[in-house]
Amino acid sequence: MIVAGFGCRSGATLDSFRDALALAGKGHSVTALAAPADRERLLAPLADALGLPFIPVPPDALAAVTTATASRASFAARGTGSVAEAAALAAAGPDACLLTPRHIASDRRATCAIAKGNPE
């Protein structure tokens, strides 16, 4: 499974998510999208447009993941260095690895990171 994890501000748009995914996802065949559970309504249009499942990630799972990026804003808001990286890794499952660190959309409203999970 290859998961695109997202972090975002409340004003993020479909274009914000598409831009972040285009930057982070180059060369990767994403099979699922993930983000904090409370952002599902913002990501649903992208998941629908791409025909991919959305994996909601609970807050405790985000905080349990060690990320490559260390953003103070992300730590303050969600208890993790990168919401996008943490969402991708948590959704991809145990022993997942980060394929790309977070990339920031040009409007700075969304971030995306890609993680690969081990086949079960």
Automatic annotation (TrEMBL):
Pfam families to which the protein is assigned, alphabetical: CbiG_C (PF01890)
Q: Which residues form a coiled coil?
A: none
InterPro entries from the xrefs? CobE/GbiG_C (IPR002750), CobE/GbiG_C_sf (IPR036518)
Its BP terms in the Gene Ontology are:
cobalamin biosynthetic process
Query: What keywords is this UniProt entry annotated with?
Result: Hydrolase
User: Domain CobE/GbiG C-terminal, which positions?
Assistant: 2-115
MF-aspect GO terms: hydrolase activity
Q: What is this protein called?
A: Cobalt-precorrin 5A hydrolase
The organism named in the record is Stakelama pacifica
